[in-house]
Amino acid sequence: MGRPPCCDNGVGVKKGPWTPEEDIILVSYIQQHGPGNWRSVPENTGLMRCSKSCRLRWTNYLRPGIKRGNFTPHEEGIIIHLQALLGNKWAAIASYLPQRTDNDIKNYWNTHLKKKVKRLQQQQQSHPDHHHHHSFQTTPSSSNAAAVATTSPNYYNPNNSNSNSSNYLHNNNHNLESMQSMATAPSNEATTIPKLFQFQTWMKPSPATTSSAATAAAGSCYKQAMAMQELQEEQEGSAAAAAMASSIDGVSKDQDYHMCAVISGDDKSSSSEMMTAAAMAGHGEAATTTFSLLENWLLDDMPGQAAMSAAMDGFLEISAGYCCADPIMF
DNA sequence: AATTCACGCAACCGCCCAGGC
DNA sequence: TGCCTGGGCGGTTGCGTGAAT
């Protein structure tokens, strides 16, 4: 007989989708205390959630470094390779794709890739001569995996674990590639909480980055993001977008990327990303102001663009003043 | 326009493992 | 050494949404 679920004895434990208010509470708490000791989270926050639910909400949705939205063909290939190699070890597979959660990968496999692989296998059987023309193989050998490891060091480096997302966030070599994929992705991709944590990373003390410089960089980067988006809309060409991305000056490229990643979100993405910004801002009056903006955005159901714009205006003002905020270590 | 169906994703469940006592 | 507990993982479910009829 197994151990009862952790929430069995909980009276009035809430289930179902998380509300923005709950997200705010959870992120605020983790911002102060760090992840871990999940047992204490519901006790100390008053959340009517079981500890496991809090942990899952954090790891699958709220934690920094998560990329959401469509998977790139590159990511698909990696997942297919690794699934063939490792089986359904989603956590292990996720460790090679630090931006993706195991849950996301698992869902994507179950809903997309499994069918795709099956279809390709059927095609392979019916047209054995053509199988090697596919962009990825369905039964890779370890040497295939090694080949991917050689050609895609950013994703396929076994040392690149997602156990510490800040490691990933500080892996600046990855940024250009990420930016390129961002530029070529649909507009609803990659517009999530993680950006705001990237923003927080971007806000780390830098001798070259003053408050006004940060604001200026924000403006300039916003233009770049918009230009890139326009370019993409006009041409739908990854090469052009990649060229645009690579045209950004080298010295500030990484910082610009983080900034762009935050600013260029053009949809009403997850409410929790704004909430996370509030948690990140977490400094007295500024935090209160941010929370106020975010609460409006979260709760009043404003039109996405206008609300995002208003919230971002406030957030940028605040962040400019707190660009040397203490880094939060997760 | 209303209903049905299929799909995607967030969240839950149950089991396992590791560490502390 | 064995038990207890917290945390992690993989499988599964259920709801929301858009497409099809």
TrEMBL record:
Residues 10-62, 63-113 form the Myb-like domain. Signal peptide: none annotated. GO terms for molecular function: DNA binding. Residues 116-173 are annotated as: Disordered. It is found in: Nucleus. InterPro entries: Homeodomain-like_sf (IPR009057), Myb_dom (IPR017930), Myb_TF_plants (IPR015495), SANT/Myb (IPR001005). GO terms for cellular component: nucleus. GO terms for biological process: response to abscisic acid; response to auxin; response to stress; stomatal movement. Residues 136-173 have a biased composition (Low complexity). Keywords: DNA-binding, Nucleus, Repeat, S-nitrosylation, Transcription, Transcription regulation. CDD domains: SANT. Residues 10-66, 67-117 form the HTH myb-type domain. PANTHER family: MYB FAMILY TRANSCRIPTION FACTOR, TRANSCRIPTION FACTOR MYB60. This is Transcription factor MYB60.
